[in-house]
């Protein structure tokens, strides 16, 4: 069996949200041959709608499709489909400052396979839902626990792409953490069990003496679009930013820790628990660097500051 290549996706139709039909022997159900993306549409004060860097999601899906042996929509097809879906659901985009419309594109092996192999057919679909804050804390600090037993990704695995199985792998640790009152889990690398990787659904940053560091992308971490954007914003605001290996010990004397992602935007971390010991940051207050970057990014995303880099796409 070969990987299917190409971008032979039809223009698609708009359907009311509901169940879809799928072969019991589809590639997605049996072998997890699926990828997803996540992006948000924000309402501007003039009523128009903004997407944030949707072509980055399209490119990440294409990179993931290569890893998962799937064909993928072109960047143009992806962005057009997102625009069409959002415009059809315009009334569900909340007012400025009241949340956003979360957009979930999915690419899956929908064709039937019996023995392990890439599926013979693929389906690309998008669904949307209005959302508020990801963590119940909002911009208040979140509390993480470092996982010592389970890992999210292994070198050579699929951690660097947004495939569905990566999320199945974190459900157990994440549920256990939430049951104990933590907001989420911070994962370490599985080789040394020492270097920070990322949280279940966001990237992590550490601030020390105004230098901002984040784990370098090494195939086991998802290259977050918010991560990339925050690095850019921080540099343009005069911060020094390092992408490197960050050991768990560095958390002990960090000034601030924060997470980034489409869903979590910029979420300050109030405490991290590791091997039963808890390190706290900011005395229950949001750190100055986290706050500054949060404000800069959300203003851009909501069209409240000038988009000098052309990161937003306006829909009428
Ligand atoms: N890491 C993981 C594992 C994620 O699921 C996400 C959310 N897509 C991120 C990081 C952040 O990526 P982005 O900023 O593109 O949403």
Automatic annotation (TrEMBL):
Its EC number is 2.6.1.42. The chain holds residues 99 to 414 of 414 of the full protein. It comes from the Eukaryota. GO terms for biological process: amino acid biosynthetic process; branched-chain amino acid biosynthetic process. This is Branched-chain-amino-acid aminotransferase. GO terms for molecular function: branched-chain-amino-acid transaminase activity. Belongs to the class-IV pyridoxal-phosphate-dependent aminotransferase family. The keyword Amino-acid biosynthesis applies. Keywords: Amino-acid biosynthesis, Aminotransferase, Branched-chain amino acid biosynthesis, Pyridoxal phosphate, Transferase. It catalyses: L-isoleucine + 2-oxoglutarate = (S)-3-methyl-2-oxopentanoate + L-glutamate; L-valine + 2-oxoglutarate = 3-methyl-2-oxobutanoate + L-glutamate; L-leucine + 2-oxoglutarate = 4-methyl-2-oxopentanoate + L-glutamate.
